[in-house]
Amino acid sequence: MSAWVAREHHRFEAAGKPFVYLVPSAAIFALDDAADSVLRTLSTKPHTREELAMALGGASSAPTTAGGGGRTLDVGAELARPGALDPNALDAAIAELSRVQAIGIAAAPVASTPKVIPLAPFPLTTMVLNVTNQCNLSCTYCYEYGEDKIVDTENGKQPKFMSEETARESVEFMLKESGANKVAHITFFGGETLLNFPVLRKTITYARRRAAEVGKDVDFSLTTNATLLKPEIIEFLAEERVGVTISIDGPKEMQDKFRVFQNGTGSYDLVAPKIKELLRRHRSRPIGARVTLTSGKMDVKRIYQHLTEEMGFWEVGFAPVTTSPTRAHAISDGGYDEMLGQFRDLAFDFLEATVAGRHHGFSNVKETLEELHKGVSKAFPCGAGLGLLGVATDGDVALCHRFAGSDSHKFGTVRDGVDRSAQQAFLEQHHIANKTDCSVCWARPLCSGGCYHEAHTRYGDTTHANLHYCNWIRGWTEVCLQVYGELSERNPAFLAQFDDEEMKELVS
Ligand code: SF4
Ligand code: SF4
Q1: Contact 452, 399 (CB under 8 A)
Q2: Which terminal residue of the chain, N or C, has fewer Cβ atoms less than 10 Å from its own Cβ?
Q3: Which of 402, 462, 469 to mutate to test the pocket of ligand 2 (most atoms within 8 A of CB)?
Q4: Whole-model pTM above 0.85?
């Protein structure tokens, strides 16, 4: 008699019910008591059907298999009495768990993750244009400076500002490389993006005209530190429906800790009124804030409350600082634990607001819920080098904006197109199948080893998995699974909004 065994999964509980996240398929299922009992028993060791029947007790009532809609469903059957499983119910639970591949025959081989490399040419979804590599702030933690920098933006070969001509060539590159995609996303980045506002403005006008000529649309967004916002720029951004993300760290005492001018003066008093004016005038797109968390700045709830309730941002995204572990602002292991606790609190605030039908702007949880709902299972951690590329001020194309200008991470130029052999070699080297530590991790469908830039900064190697933050990633994924499970019971309509939404590249 063949023995059954549990396949790779992660069990979690939400809304007082057990759920399972199936790692190879990234699918989520609600479990009833029978299916949960079978899965838990098989998780300890393989059992034959008879051993399962013995372990779970005998009973006489007939099974009642319940199916559900969407990506969650109930499998198995009701317990006939506490601790005893009807034989028919046991068979039904085994059949359902086997059908969704939560369990399998122990002797049957388990398929390993296939190493599928996308066929070139892969269409470009998002082009991040570094219109300048200069900044008017000197944020202490910035990866562009100090020992963490990849490219010498002061004395290196790149111009400090992108020319109008290079920007136009970049637009042509984007339109061509976006292939059959109807919409091209262009994100302006820096340095401080608005230091090169004249080129940015002309590029938007040019791109709109050229896209219309070839039958495409272009979606524009930018990231700025807000110091250079002024009425005519705000007017332009609103008129042109440019998505805006503001880099800001929270209330004055937190913003002024790291986000300082060269003379050490904090930037809060300058940016706060400008941001309020932007939020008042620019109503054509929701405006988001992006916060960098460091060892000394970890009050997530207070920052969120200030940026939404006191300043008026629609949404706020948080990211731990990317830096070498030796720097004072680097987040320690204990710091990651603290950050997880604070993220959890805010995620459950998000849950309660969402159940009550109110908007909540904690974008980290919303983005992860979308990925969970869509069953995202990543062979690569992000779109960098795939659907997303960064362009340096001289028109060199790189893995992403954080590597723009680095010869070691170059993927061609906007004039010559994508270097397909460099891209292919990169994808071969960085596939999740090469990351042995990740191959046994249940969080890999969403993490896939983590950001290449973080890995480069930590380990000097983009192929390295970011093993310093695995506990944090797994803890955060668990929180998001719990929120997902709760929402699937208490407000499934919220999750249904993700059914039709296009997945966009996230630029961090
Ligand atoms: S980096 Fe860590 S958390 Fe991420 S997939 Fe690999 S082992 Fe899992
Ligand atoms: S996650 Fe990292 S590697 Fe990917 S686009 Fe963002 S910064 Fe670049």
Answers
A1: yes
A2: N
A3: 402
A4: yes
